[in-house]
Write a structure and sequence with these properties.
Largest sheet: 11 strands, mixed
CATH topology: Immunoglobulin-like
CATH superfamily: PCu(A)C copper chaperone
Distance between the termini: 46 Å
Structural class: mainly beta
Number of domains: 1
Shape: globular
Strand content: over 45%
Order of helices and strands: HEEEEEEEEEEE
CATH class: Mainly Beta
Radius of gyration: 20 Å
């Protein structure tokens, strides 16, 4: 009986060790951008594409020193009028990039502490359920900026965690 218990304990410890060694999923952030704001603007937005190499994860929140508060938002149509709504999380599934873009999911910068000027960069920390904190430098572009061509394919300005 001791022999069996000893081997069972060793097998259990081995499985625990292997579980801890499993590779963590990598979140890739591509094509980040924000739009320039007016000098007195109190809100801005950040846009980017998120991809996950394996499994599932969720973007839970974000933060930035340029804003008092940062929220995850989506545009929804209500009675023919586009409305912005806060969302609790943005789910990610491996192999399916999620594009945060104008008119859809985006990151709202509320209570801006400074004007967002074209050529500047906004420091942004994305907080994921499994991947943890991912820091991104978000370039500020002109007021009408759109996602770069090919952003749906992942682009080339990747940041990984």
């Amino acid at each position: 009986m001791k022999f069996f218990a000893k081997h069972l304990a060793l097998a259990s410890l081995s499985m625990l060790a292997l579980t801890g060694m499993a590779a963590a999923a990598t979140v890739t952030v591509t094509e980040p951008f924000s739009r320039a704001t007016a000098p007195t603007a109190k809100v801005g937005a950040a846009f980017l594409t998120l991809a996950l190499d394996q499994g599932e994860d969720k973007l839970l929140s974000a933060s930035s020193p340029v804003a008092e508060k940062v929220e995850l938002h989506n545009h929804v149509m209500e009675n023919g009028v586009a409305q912005m709504r806060s969302v609790a999380a943005i789910p990610l599934v491996a192999g399916t990039p999620v594009q945060l873009q104008p008119g859809g999911l985006h990151i709202m910068l509320i209570g801006l502490k400074q004007q967002l000027k074209a050529g500047d960069a906004v420091p942004l920390t994305l907080n994921f359920e499994k991947a943890g904190a991912v820091s991104v430098s978000v370039p500020v572009k002109g007021p009408g900026a759109r996602p770069a061509a090919g952003a749906e394919q992942g682009g080339h300005n990747g940041h990984q965690h």
